[in-house]
Amino acid sequence: MLQVLAKEANVNMVYLETILKIIGIAYIAEFASQITKDAGQGTLASKIELAGKIIILAMAIPILTVMIETILNLIPT
What is the mean pLDDT of residues 23-39? Predict the structure, then answer.
């Protein structure tokens, strides 16, 4: 269903796949963080959350670049 919608909206499938991976990483990082908090390892939980955020940021850079380029192309010079 998502592929059909992406094709109709002329969205590159690479971006859709990246967004789905980012969502998966966010869920996994949150799940792991909650497990470590329940085990009494609050410090480790915060490190897991930080690692998840860094990975998400690194994966989102190409999407952010395309968005900024699109916005700059819309602004008249």
Answer: 96
Question: Tokens at residue 68, please?
Answer: 């900024």
Distance (Å, whole) CA 16 – CA 43: 33
Indicate the pTM of the whole model. 0.79
Rounded-to-integer distance, Cα 77 and Cα 52, Å: 38
Q: What is the pLDDT of residues 35-59, one digit of tens each?
A: 999 999 999 999 999 999 999 999 9
Place of tokens 């269903």: 1
User: 16 with 3: CB under 8 angstroms?
Assistant: yes
CB 70 within 8 A of CB 40: no
Rounded to whole angstroms, how far apart are CA atoms 48 and 31? 10
Compute the distance between CA of residue 14 and CA of residue 8 in angstroms, rounded to an integer. Answer: 15
For residue 49, give Cα distances in angstroms to 43, 53, 72, 77: 10, 6, 33, 41
